[in-house]
Design a protein that fits this description.
alpha+beta; Aspartate Aminotransferase, domain 1; 5 strands; five-stranded antiparallel sheet; 4 helices; 39% helix
Amino acid sequence: MTDKRSQDVDAFIENQSPEWQAVLSALRALVFDAERNLEEASKWNSPTYSLNENICNCMMHTDHVNLQFFNGAKLNDPKGLLEGTGKSMRHVKIHSLDDVKNNYGALVALVRTAAELNTSK
């Protein structure tokens, strides 16, 4: 099955600086590598990925992007990448393209596990 990329997300990425375009494009590819069946949409002015329910999104900040997991508190995180203390939301701070590359496998595992949680409901 082909992934379901959104033109709104295309526009969002194109609107960022070249550095953040590279980071967001890498995160987008990573998310679809983890789970090809995800739906992509722009929600809360952020690329957001869902499968039955919201799974994760890429929230821009001044000096980083948060890869946010809506049910992150339920995820196994052996590398200790997840931050946050909310009831369910957790995030991974991405400061550069190297952060994506250096944690690729662990990030794919988090997205995959989050997707599996949504489909097992």
